Amino acid sequence: MFGGTYLRDGLSLRDRQLVNLAALTAVGGVDPQLSGHVRTALRVGMTRQEIVEVFVHLAPYIGVPKALAGLRVAAAALTDAEQEAGR
Q: Is the CB of residue 18 less than 8 Å from the CB of residue 67?
């Protein structure tokens, strides 16, 4: 479904994940999708610090409650990914 948008020229996979994290957090209520995109962000080379910074940066634009909700989802996804990597 999304293959065509990911294969387009103009943005790197990393940049696309930045946009995805921001958009899904702004929309809210899409925790499973946000969690999946946090994991994808790690796979395309984003660091834990960069992912967390996305949510900090979003707070004044989308509101602190939505940014914190996104950060909670991201923290859980990051913890799960770290535990899986340690197995």
A: no
Q: Domains plus CATH for the chain? A: 12-86 (1.20.1290.10)
pTM check: above 0.85: yes
pLDDT attached to residue 28: 96
Q: How many CB atoms lie within 10 A of CB 67?
A: 20
DSSP string, 2-43: -HHHHTSTTS-HHHHHHHHHHHHHHH-S-HHHHHHHHHHHHH
Element (H, E) at 58: helix 48-62
Distance CA 63, CA 73 (A): 16
The SS3 of residue 85 is helix
